[in-house]
Amino acid sequence: MKALLAPLLLCLATATVFAAWPINDVCPVDGKAARPIYRVKNAEGAFIAFCCVSCQQTFEKAPGKYPVKKKDTPK
Predict the structure, then answer these.
(1) Is residue 37 part of a domain?
(2) Residue 5's pLDDT band (cuts 50, 70, 90)
(3) Residue 59 CB contacts under 8 Å (≥ 6 apart), including other chains
(4) What is the pLDDT of residues 8-60, one digit of tens each?
(5) What's this model's pTM, rounded to 2 decimal places?
(6) What residue numbers bound the domain in which 57 lies?
(7) Could you tell me if residue 4 is inside a domain?
(8) Whole-angstrom distance between the N-terminal and C-terminal Cα of the chain?
């Protein structure tokens, strides 16, 4: 049982980290590279990342004003 517990916990932790990964690479406010540490959850439940806390706060005041460009997904 102990042999199964560690891999199970690792899978759950990995799934949680990737589920909270942002959908964008570029800050929608500044246009700079986004940093995953500064993020908010949008209405659809996806995370949007920003380059700094100032941009994050600006976006939260008027989210419709700043379009979010989703990162390209490899096919």
Answers:
(1) yes
(2) low
(3) 28, 29, 40, 48, 50, 66
(4) 666 665 544 555 799 999 999 999 999 999 999 998 999 999 999 999 999 99
(5) 0.69
(6) 20-75
(7) no
(8) 38
Structure confidence at residue 49 (pLDDT): 97
Token code pair at residue 2: 């102990």
Whether residue 55 contacts residue 7, with contact meaning beta carbons closer than 8 Å, is answered with no
How many separate domains does the chain show? 1
- Domain-embedded: residue 60: yes
The strand pairing partners of 26, in sequence order, are 33
Q: How many whole angstroms separate alpha carbon 32 and alpha carbon 50?
A: 8
**66: in domain:** yes
d(CA 55, CA 49): 9
Output the domain CATH number for residue 54: 2.30.170
Distances (CA, A) of 21 to 9, 13, 36, 55: 19, 13, 7, 18
